[in-house]
Specification:
The chain is α+β, with helices and mostly antiparallel strands and 706 residues long. Helices cover 46% and strands 14% of the residues. The longest helix is centred in the middle third of the chain and has 41 residues, at 423-463.
């Protein structure tokens, strides 16, 4: 790329960075992925002046929170401002990466190409438009490595201080940041004379970082209400024995395949067109290559794992249907998606053959000389790569985004010192980079556009139609950000696990069985392949009932597929009973419901979205010689609102009495759903039949009673 030669890389990056921001458009008050938890902690810092991590993050995080809080103090508290803070970290991170690359290679174009490959990496680029942790962590990692490596080249107190500072910051973003000062402690011991002063100087960055980490963990234990929010090193070690060797094999191969796949532009750009080497060396390479191909193929079963990078898009769509793999759009055929492992396997083999180290060069790192500093920096990169591969292979959790630090340092490891790139290889490499860049731009734009559409639709549902967020499954980020409910068990046919109280309304990417489509919202797209639609569905089973659908009637005649329920005239309303259907008496039809000792409750149902002023009338036919049983209406938990009616008989026929219970919901009731049921509190049998429930909205605000 001629631009890399003509202008400075920072200027080129700044131009591309600004163009990318305009094209993607980061503006929008909605969380993305897990960043709702990080954003909430920043909001607590600004609004309450307290550091409250919550129970979602498992990482140290605190340095990132104060970075985001700084931006919010200056520009105002918003999710958009927090995304801007990540974009700034993203820009700084690529500059630091370029600085390290220039220490390794004398070729400015090679360093610039590597910097662009990092910037347009789909994971790095997409995460730069969120307040997720990964870009902030990598930025701090690269800054720490850059300053400490400059101190290796030419000892400088300022570089040493800055390197130590960024090591602490890195570790206070994510625990694995301890790796950087540990590596430079080893490198310092190799480089300097073995005097107490030199050893102490090289050890201080690691000791200071470790001390900061331990003090922070101690503060969490004694100074917060949730000391288990951040996982320690012990948790990682304890989890090593939880999995089989085959699990670690598949995980390790997946990690390596991500390296090959995402570094493909540079691997192709650096291919040498000329063939060199002896026949024996090519035979050895062929055997090694064939062995690698077999191992990588056998271990590639679970690649790609996904999260940020999914099929034909970027950024996870965490909705009730897409979470289970249904209705994901846009989507390539499964064969093509899984077929990505083949170029990833070939690219990983190509990466291994570009590995720059042998025993001779490794030994040379231990001997003083003009080239020692350069060799030590590359040795440090090698240590980071090897340790991070091991860390990702044994870590109990793994998403594609976790590979970002590995991808950056793995790319630095194979940068040539002086070799120029051939014209043909460069064209191929830049061509693949262009594909990655276009995919990153369009995929990230669509991800934010899709989320913007989702939140606009859900906001309209809440504000214009008055639906409470506790009655909506708007997807993971929506319910997590608004704290709408508890965790549920993971069940494809039940409520989503993410904090859903009631799923009367559901945001989805397509139709779902037993749900009725109420709204469709097209997602603006920049190219035809990203045509997408967001659906708002209404739960037809166990959901809300609009006023026009009343009255609800049930005659105890028809039992649903679940024998503990009677069906009603509406498919979404069922009445619970304790297997109490009886042929002994009937007001109409063939059956009624018998309430006997041990079966005191029946005809139980729940009315949802109850509003102040609602007029609810319940009638049921009763056969009860003692007239002790009756109708009950209460708020769902039965604590703040409870009415029992057993005497208001409005008509009698052949020994049956029709009870009526009429209520009006008071102002600000403090609940939005009520339970209705019949109750027999005595040991004498009673029978109930033909329940009818009517509900009308308040005609005027004056009708609402206290």
């Amino acid at each position: 790329m001629a631009l890399i030669k003509r202008i400075s890389f920072p200027a080129l990056l700044a131009l591309l960075w600004m163009i990318s921001i305009v094209m993607v458009n980061p503006i929008g008050e909605f969380p993305l992925n897990d960043d709702w938890a990080f954003a909430r902690a920043v909001y607590n810092l600004i609004e309450k002046g307290e550091l409250i991590l919550g129970d979602w993050p498992a990482i140290t995080l605190v340095a990132q929170l104060y970075w985001g809080a700084l931006f919010c103090k200056i520009f105002g508290l918003s999710l958009t401002v927090l995304r801007i803070s990540t974009l700034v970290s993203s820009f700084i991170g690529v500059i630091a990466f370029y600085g390290i690359a220039r220490q390794i290679t004398q070729n400015k174009e090679v360093a610039g190409l590597a910097g662009l490959i990092l910037f347009f990496n789909p994971l790095y680029f997409s995460l730069s438009f969120t307040f997720m942790n990964n870009v902030h962590f990598l930025c701090a990692c690269l800054l720490a490595f850059w300053f400490l490596s400059k101190n290796i080249e030419r000892p400088n107190l300022l570089h040493w201080i800055l390197g130590t500072l960024f090591c602490i910051i890195t570790t206070l973003i994510r625990q694995s940041g301890l790796l950087i000062p540990f590596v430079f402690m080893i490198l310092g011991w190799i480089q300097t004379k073995r005097t107490l002063g030199n050893i102490l100087k090289q050890t201080i960055p690691f000791l200071a970082t470790l001390a900061a980490y331990l003090l922070y963990m101690r503060w969490l234990e004694v100074g917060t209400s949730n000391p288990q929010a951040v996982r320690g090193v012990g948790d990682l070690i304890a989890g090593i024995f939880d999995n089989s060797l085959s699990y670690y094999f598949y995980r390790s191969v997946s990690v390596l395949l991500y390296v090959g796949f995402f570094l493909l532009p540079f691997l192709l750009a650096s291919i040498k067109p000329s063939i060199s080497g002896t026949r024996r060396s090519w035979l050895i390479k062929g055997v090694i290559g064939a062995g690698l191909l077999v191992v990588l193929y056998l271990g590639s079963v679970f690649f790609p794992i996904g999260n940020i990078f999914y099929n034909f898009g970027l950024g996870p769509k965490l909705l009730k249907d897409t979470y289970w793999g249904d209705n994901i759009t846009p989507q390539l055929p499964e064969a093509i998606w899984k077929g990505l492992r083949y170029p990833a396997i070939l690219a990983t083999v190509l990466y291994v053959f570009k590995f720059p180290w042998n025993i001779r060069s490794l030994k040379a790192s231990f001997y003083p000389g003009p080239a020692q500093a350069h060799r030590l920096i590359r040795l440090g990169i090698l240590m980071v790569v090897l340790i991070y591969v091991g860390f990702l292979s044994i870590s109990p959790y793994f998403f594609d985004r976790y590979t970002l630090p590995l991808l950056a340092f793995a790319l630095l490891l194979i940068l040539p010192v002086t070799t120029k790139l051939s014209a043909t290889s460069k064209k191929i490499g830049y061509g693949v980079l262009a594909v990655y860049a276009v995919f990153s731009l369009i995929g990230t734009h669509h991800y934010l556009s899709w989320n913007r559409t989702r939140w606009d639709a859900l906001t309209q549902l809440m504000e214009e139609k008055g639906i409470a967020p506790t009655h909506i499954d708007g997807g993971f980020e929506f319910n997590a950000w608004l704290e709408t409910g508890p965790f549920n068990k993971e069940d494809k046919h039940g409520k989503s696990w993410w904090f859903v109280m009631e799923d009367d309304y559901v945001a989805s990417s397509g139709r779902i069985k037993d749900f009725e489509v109420r709204e469709t919202h097209p997602v603006p797209a920049v190219w035809p392949f990203h045509r997408d639609t967001l659906f708002i569905l209404w739960h037809m089973v166990d959901g809300m009932t609009v006023y026009e659908n009343y009255p609800i009637t049930c005659g105890a005649e028809t039992v649903s597929p679940d024998p503990y329920y009677f069906t009603s005239n509406l498919p979404q309303i069922k009445f619970h009973h304790e297997l109490a259907q009886s042929e002994e008496k009937a007001h109409s039809g063939q059956y009624s419901m018998a309430l006997t000792e041990g079966k005191e409750y029946g005809f139980s149902t729940v009315l949802k979205d109850i509003r102040a002023g609602d007029q609810i009338t319940v009638r049921v036919w009763r056969w009860d010689g003692t007239r002790s049983s009756g109708l009950v209406i209460s708020n769902y938990e039965g604590e703040n609102y409870y009415i029992f009616e057993k005497t208001n008989v409005i008509q009698e026929k052949d020994g049956w009495q029709q009870l009526e219970l009429k209520v009006q919901i008071p102002t600000e009731p403090g609940f939005d759903k009520v339970g209705i049921y019949v109750w027999n509190p005595v040991k004498v049998d009673a029978w109930f039949d033909d329940i009818e429930i009517d509900r009308k909205a308040a005609q005027d605000k004056k009708e609402v009673v206290e």
